[in-house]
Amino acid sequence: SMAVNVSEVPLAVLAGADMPAVLVEMGYLTHPEYAARLNDPNYLDQLANRLAEALTDTIAVIKKIPYENL
């Protein structure tokens, strides 16, 4: 089964969000290897596809949780 971990941390970048929000780190521009990858359109497509899959999987898991337990 898939575990769902939820962390509640006060992050300035998410402050004031009036809806559920997610912050995803995909790499660091200050790291030469990650910076090079983040300039590759194929790598960006892979990241986008994997993020979409993760969100879809997470939504499917959440939908199975009874509303009163959320």
Give me some keywords for this one.
2 helices, 70 residues, mainly alpha, 43% helix, 0% strand
Furnish the topology, listing elements before pairings:
Blueprint: H1 32-37, H2 41-64
Explain how this protein is built.
The protein is an all-alpha fold. Helix content is 43%, strand content 0%. It has helices spanning 32-37, 41-64. The protein is flat.
Number of helices: 2
Question: What's the SSE pattern?
Answer: HH
C-alpha-based Rg, rounded: 16 Å
Distance between the termini: 18 Å
Runs in which pLDDT lies below 50 for 5 or more consecutive residues are none
Please, what is the average pLDDT?
Answer: 84
Task: Please give the share of residues in helix.
Answer: 40-55%
- Which term fits the overall shape? flat
Work out the number of β strands. 0
What amount of the residues lies in strands? under 5%
Task: Put the structure in a nutshell.
The chain is mostly helical and 70 residues long. It is built from two helices and no strands. The chain starts with 31 loop residues before the first helix and ends in a 6-residue tail after the last helix.
